[in-house]
Amino acid sequence: MKGGGSARALRRLLLVLVGVLYALSIPWYRRGGDPAELWLGLPDWVTVALLCYAGAALLNALAWLLTEVPDDVPPEESSR
Asked: Are 53 and 38 contacting, i.e. CB atoms less than 8 angstroms apart?
């Protein structure tokens, strides 16, 4: 695969962004007792969490597309 190093770096960046999205999905930014606003028919913190999870799934799929998985490894070598 050409550009294996750049693909590896991009994959790592995508996985870091997945972690950032998971951290942003936690409603730690809200104060206790604040009234929830409705976004897309859901409380704002739920909408933010769902969008973060969808973004994380998309970035994870892109990271897997950049991952090279060899199919030609004999079974006896893969168990070592």
From this structure: no
| 3, part of any domain | no
Residue 1 has pLDDT above 60, yes or no: no
How far is Cα 34 from Cα 48, in angstroms, rounded to an integer?
A: 16
- Give 14-31 pLDDT, tens digit per residue: 999 999 999 999 988 888
Quote the domain boundaries for residue 44: 22-29+36-66
Q: Is residue 40 part of a domain?
A: yes
Instruction: Report which of 25, 26, 20, 32 is spatially closest to residue 60, judged by C-alpha positions.
Output: 20
Query: CA angle, 57 as apex, 51 and 61 as ends, to 5°?
Result: 145
- Would residue 56 count as lying in a domain? yes
56 within 8 A of 14, measured Cβ to Cβ: no
- What is the total count of domains within the chain? 1
